[in-house]
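Schema walk-through. Below, the input block comes first and the output block second. Nothing else is stored per chain. Lengths vary across the set, and this one has 617 residues.
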Amino acid sequence: MSNLPPEVEAQAIMRAAHLDELIQGLPRPDDPDATDPRPEYDPKRPWGERLLAKATELDMTERALRRWVRLYRDRGVEGLVDRRRGRNGNAGRDIDTRWTDAVRAVLAEHTNRSRPTKKRVLQLVEERLDTQYGPGVVLCPPTSTAYKALDRLTKGTNAFRGSTKQKRSIANGPRVMYSRLVATRPGEYVLLDTTRLDVFGIDPITERWVEAELTVAMDLCDRRIVGMCLRPVSTKAVDVAAVLYETIHPSPHPGATMSEGPYSGVPNTVIHIDSDDTTERQSVDVVDTIVIDHGKVFISEHVKSVCARLGISIQPGRPYTPTDKAPVERFFRTLREDLLETLPGYKGPDVYSRGLDVEKTAVYFIHELDAIIRGWIAEVYHRRPHSGLVIPEAPGVAISPLEMHEYALTKAGYLRILTDWDLAFDFLPTAWRSIQRYGVELHGLRYQGAVLEDLVNTRSKYGGVHRGKWPIRYDPNDIRQVYFQDADDEMHLWHRLDWTHRHVLGGPFSLDALNFAKQVAIKTGRHDDVLRVIQEHVERWRQGAAEGRPEKRIALQQALHLRTLGLDGDASTPSTGPTGRIEPDEATLGFAEPDLEVDDEELDEADYYADTLDIAI
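--- output ---
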């Protein structure tokens, strides 16, 4: 009865009241103050007279009234419901279930295909039914009914409208109810994700447009963006490590910090604890778990090793299921709608939204876009109330990420974590090398430093598969120098080792650029003149004369002077700790002999050229 329209329910109740007066002699239904039955319905009168009186009153036949009485006695008020008016709407009540199953099967086959029309789907369904059951065995509903049934079956699936990308996300979503990931304090869960930026930037060399990728880390508890990295063309594993580093360390970008307000990570002031005349070194464990997708930059060995050293758990999301990181996906949409749409060079979320020659309107360089996004996050996004943030004790209060951060710290407490001043080096890739009389050799380059003089031909105390070798940290974005730490040094100082030919380059030189120069030297037969090849290409890149997609991508990275974790290779010392730098010897060959092969991994030309600049058309 509660599922009936109000007027139908009231009609059934009124009919029951009339029958109560007829059968039991109760007072008339339209007079609630009456206590005695009306004379014509006195129970002492014959049943036939009372039945005739009620039929006359209701203007209906005695036969119909007797039917009401029978239904009322058998089923109560429910039996008096007008079925014509109380019937529940159901578009598929008269449709063969085999037709419905065929529709679902056809739609499932089009999950990863281009969007079909409703007419095409109905044609495929009819062909499937004829093939499976025989022609004409399963009756298809009329066209209008079939279209209504399609609307009902595809509601909320984006099968015929909306984004096809979102259609795939919906199809890959869970089929059962699931609980949401709940964070009780800052740092408990950090969501990492990368997206192609919906605005074009400018190449500082050629002054032409270029695409960029944005990687962010979001604290699930308060929705703050605690780390970000904007890179031209594509993101690498070392860039993801840099984002992780920013989550537990103040931003290395001057004037662009996003952690305004209380900071839940490493204190800005370095603290050392002296105990028994030794320095106790404690690792950082602010972030408990990071939630990532299955992109190769997120599940790389470099990112895994960084998380293992810092005690960070990794929780991968399900493949092609962005709902597992819904808050960060919503951030990307907010960034696009609130900021990127207002910038020159905005291209829209897809090709259907793109204007005419929008790339020609781009005016901001990549580093300028980085500063704009960071400023918007700090001044707008972190200070504006979010509908997704709720305080359980006061669910109706609008709260911003910064306010939620303060509230969460009040409940969970301030995390005072001690850390090493050399924490940044833990986020760099590690290569294991022996120390020879010429220094150390990495990627075919030789590096020297005064700190190595007493360690020539010595074995380290490290065991494992690299027994006897020494760990060397390097920045893939600038391999003019590497970083070395003597395990026997009580101060645990880091030292910078310089490439013997770094003086021939006026700026950062990446590992990609080195591999590209080696490829050119091999193809042109200039195996003994790789240094000259490097000089020639660096000069060409500075003049904007790069050719081909791989070379243009590398030239762009060189022009932007990308640095990892704020380590400045142009300074006389690293950003943290002293250095054992020596002056390069121009007479010393800077390349390893006798071959030019990369030591760490085989250089697969197909794989190398596969990760190139993707020009948007």
